[in-house]
TrEMBL record:
Keywords: Membrane, Transmembrane, Transmembrane helix. InterPro entries: DUF3667. It comes from Chryseobacterium cheonjiense. The chain crosses the membrane at residues 82-104, 237-256, 268-288, 300-322, 343-362. It comes from the Bacteria. This is DUF3667 domain-containing protein.
Amino acid sequence: MMSHGKLRDDKNCLNCGHTVEERFCPHCGQENIQPKQPFYYLFTHFIEDFTHYDGQFWKTIKYLLFRPGKLTKEYLAGKRQFYVAPVKLYIFISFITFFLPSLFSSSEEHENKELYTVNTTEKEKANKEKIAKILDSINKENKTMLVKPEVIQDLKVAEVNGNNIELDALEETKDGKLSILGARNMKQFDSLYSKNTNKQSVFNFMRPIAKKVFHLQEQGLNKEQIFDKFSETVVHTLPKALFIYLPVFAFFLWIFHNKKKWWFFDNGIFTLHYFSFLLLGILILIFSSKVISLLPDYTIFNVLSTIIYTGAIGYMLIYFFIAHHRVYENSRSISVIKGISLFIINSFALLCMLLLLIYTSFRMMH
């Protein structure tokens, strides 16, 4: 790509020192222009680079979305000049998929904080009234009985937050908050832990989640708001999880195909393109979800959103089988058998990673 920078009079390349007869160095390819340019050159150079990248980018995106396996076959055949490189494509789409939800969440943060403040104030008033009634009834019914302060405190929490304690993993209380294994706070959680000696492994597993949930509830968040934050955390973490899973996916492909014909590198290229497609699909779903959330709550829009989500997820599943058949060029029956086997194995492996992701996402919420 040629820029509009002023050519140097000297014919020696500033980069490698070789003689430059024309505009570009025949040895390293650097353009022989003045190293110092006007400030506006930074912007014009960016536009020129983007325009050059743009031509590759949109052609690559078109093939990635609507021509399963096309990019992989072209790349492995050596036709690489007209498309964005697989690694660069994956990094770019992954960055956008990670960055876009952050924009949406930051724009809603101020509104959520105001809502949390209002909800917290109202709940505090209601709780104070309930606590006053509870203490009044305790004083009347237990005039001759000495009640320890910590017992009264537990009664406050248990009575205000809802029903009797039961060992359910996650349960909603009457005021819209969450209880963890029947506990409404860490004090109750530790008390139940000491009493349920046969379930201490469950309590140990749930302890980080309980700390996080109770901390968020102390800040005024209810169940819906906590789950919203959890969903945002999962979306932010998903690109990282997919990146970690890339070599695992490529390894399973390598196992199922001819090692002499298909190197691990070839399977890696297929994996990069397929995961780029998945991330792009997730990005489209995120954007569609935000757009649909702005529409009125009419039946036609709800039906439309269901059709979009179902169609997108279905296409993501079918896409793999089509791309796999076109790239590896097995017979249709063999391709289907291998595709189903790979789908089952990767679904199980991804499910394990997803469960780990859910657990870590709860711990990472803030």
